[in-house]
Amino acid sequence: MYTDILPQDVLSRIEQGEPVRVLDVREQDEWESGHISGALHIPLGQINRALNELDREQETIVVCRSGNRSSRACEYLSSLGCRVVNMTGGMSAWSGALAYASERD
User: Fold this and answer.
1) What is the dihedral of CA 98, 104, 93, 8, to 10 degrees?
2) How far is CA 50 from CA 27, 84, 97, in A?
3) Torsions phi, psi for 39 (to 5 deg)
4) CA dihedral 95, 60, 19, 38 (to 10 degrees)
5) Which are the contacts of 27, defined by CB distance < 8 A and separation ≥ 6?
6) Got the DSSP string for 7-57?
7) Taken in order 17, 55, 65, 71, is the CA torsion positive or negative?
8) What gap in Å lies between CA 67 and CA 24, rounded to an integer?
9) What is the set of active-site residues?
10) Residue 101 pLDDT > 80, yes or no?
11) Model confidence over 35-57: pLDDT tens digits?
């Protein structure tokens, strides 16, 4: 089971200096068009890779373009015991700064 969070609440947590773990499940071209600084990039089709890179006990906010792929990723990852939160609205609703590095900032 997982919960949802609004993009503005994620941004607020980042601006307050909270350590926020973000997993971006969009495709490479979407990632390159701008992503949340510090996010981990693993496209949805490669989501099994996330199992080796996520701390299952640490909350991870999962994002995509609109919230649909991230909700599927959350369903899968939460069924395996990961603490995940879906960012509803996705990057389409993100009003914070964007990073443009190749894999991880």
Assistant:
1) -90
2) 15, 12, 24
3) -70, 150
4) -60
5) 43
6) HHHHHHHHHTT---EEEE-S-HHHHHT-B-TT-EE--GGGGGGHHHHS-TT
7) negative
8) 11
9) 64
10) no
11) 999 999 999 999 998 899 999 99
